[in-house]
Specification:
- There is one protein chain.
- The protein has 443 residues and is of the alpha+beta class.
- The protein is built from 18 helices and ten strands.
- It has two domains: 41-156 and 321-389, D-Maltodextrin-Binding Protein, domain 2 (3-Layer(aba) Sandwich); 173-318 and 410-441, D-Maltodextrin-Binding Protein, domain 2 (3-Layer(aba) Sandwich).
- A five-stranded mixed β-sheet has the order 2-1-3-10-6, sandwiched between helices. It has a three-stranded antiparallel β-sheet with strand order 8-7-9.
- 46% of the residues are buried.
């Protein structure tokens, strides 16, 4: 056996170095992958628990694995209840440590603008490549022309309803178009033990998703177009509150005062409510488990579900889109890696996989997704395609800025109706909400 000397080791090391610089390096580059000995970067990403479980499974599984192989970044995806996200953001900012990337909802990015990194290079690139962002995405993701977040998708609610039950009370093949019709149908449905179901509680999606469009449909608004002058205390707002009180008592499941975004899903699927404003998750769950969720006649419930916009009032008919935005936090130690992962995961090829898994629960953030084949698969889900272009955002008639986000986060509009439903005189409820809003806009 030959004796291995220090000189031999040095020669072998030198030969290895030459190989790495020549054929070895060429072989590595040819694979398109990072060298096996390179250190994998790990990023902590915080998101909501998706109402489409398949999307979370895809993100935590296949997409995470592909990200590590493609760009050498391991995405550690944590999912929590959406109502808990804002508390996590606040604590992370205060401590200067936490998730590198946080997915936010609605106009929340406006609240944390000073703590977000500039991601304009990514947003500009994605917008140009994918037909431009929807206005609702851009306006919540920018401050003074600076991109503070990368738009991810757009959610929103439509009324899911049992078409056979509505037909039994005179609305065959259609949903009540006005509030008077909605009230009349609801009175009959509740007497039959099939009330509507809405929340008037402190929950991120379904509460503002119902009460803001309801306010606008009566002609009410929060502020003037100047974004400063609070005008909530108006004849139109008062009329909306006066009507809301009997509407609630005569047509709704009154337990909705304490509901979060999951209660109405469970109530609908259990057959205890006839209609509720919601995302597409109720229908998707019924569609996924046709043998579990059935009508009183034993047929699959999925075949008895349709979607419609909330009724129109004297001020028109509206919805409130729910943009989802990924924020890169300034406290993140390595800004380059999170940017690289955001660019990769938002690319058309990768996002397409996640978008397909949503089945129409959300729309894409850019206009290129309007023509995606997913919208042709199921006509029951097709109406959700229009959510990004048919609504308003909180803060109307002003911009959905930080003050509008604070008002929404404090549930001032929602509480105005909840207080009246619980017995406060409508005029007092309106004055209370107006006063609370003035505090926010004058701060």
């Amino acid at each position: 056996m030959a004796r291995i000397t220090r000189r031999t080791i040095l020669k072998l090391s030198g030969a290895g170095a030459v190989a790495a610089r020549t054929g070895g390096l060429a072989a590595i580059l040819a694979t398109g992958r990072a060298p096996a000995f390179a250190q994998t970067k790990a990023l902590h990403c915080l998101r909501w628990v998706d109402f489409v479980p398949a999307s979370d499974q895809l993100l935590k599984g296949q997409i995470t694995e592909e990200c590590q192989k493609a760009i050498g970044i391991k995405l550690e995806v944590e999912t929590i209840n959406a109502n808990d996200i804002q508390a996590r953001i606040t604590s992370s900012i205060q401590s200067g440590t936490g998730p590198d990337i946080i997915m936010t909802l609605n106009n929340w990015p406006q609240l944390y603008a000073q703590s977000c990194a500039d991601v304009g290079d990514i947003a500009d690139e994605l917008g140009k490549a994918q037909g431009g962002f929807y206005d609702v995405c851009k306006v919540v993701s920018t401050v003074d022309g600076k991109w503070i977040g990368v738009p991810w998708c757009v959610g929103g609610g439509l009324v899911a309803y049992r078409k056979s039950w509505l037909a039994e009370v005179g609305f065959d093949g259609k949903f009540p178009a006005t509030w008077d019709q909605f009230r009349t149908a609801g009175q009959k449905l509740k007497k039959a033990g099939r009330p509507y179901g809405q929340t008037a509680g402190h929950t991120f999606g379904d509460a503002p998703g119902w009460w803001y469009p309801y306010l606008w449909s009566w002609g009410g608004k929060e502020v003037e177009a100047d974004g400063k002058t609070v005008v909530l205390d108006s004849k139109e707002t008062l009329e909306s509150v006066k009507f809301a009180v009997p509407l609630w008592k005569e047509t709704m499941d009154e337990g909705g005062l304490a509901w979060d975004d999951t209660n109405n899903n469970r109530a609908f699927l259990s057959g205890t409510i006839s209609a509720t404003n919601n995302g597409a998750s109720i229908y998707l769950e019924a569609k996924k488990k046709p043998d579990t969720y059935k009508t009183e006649k034993g047929t699959p419930m999925k075949d008895d579900i349709l979607h419609a916009g909330i009724p129109a009032g004297p001020g028109g008919q509206f919805n409130i889109p729910g943009p989802f935005t990924n924020l890169l936090m300034k406290y993140s130690n390595n800004q380059a890696a999170p940017k690289q992962s955001l660019r990769w995961i938002s690319s058309k090829e990768i996002f397409d996989k996640w978008f397909v898994s949503q089945q129409g629960y959300t729309a894409g953030p850019t206009k290129v997704w309007e023509n995606h084949q997913v919208w042709n698969v199921d006509p029951v889900l097709a109406p959700f395609k229009q959510i990004p272009v048919t609504g308003r955002l909180a803060g109307y008639a002003g911009p959905p800025n930080q003050r509008a986000a604070e008002v929404q986060t404090k549930y001032i509009v929602v509480d105005m109706y909840a207080k009246a439903i619980q017995g406060m005189p409508p005029a007092d409820a309106v004055k209370w909400a107006h006063g609370e809003m003035v505090k926010v806009y004058s701060a």
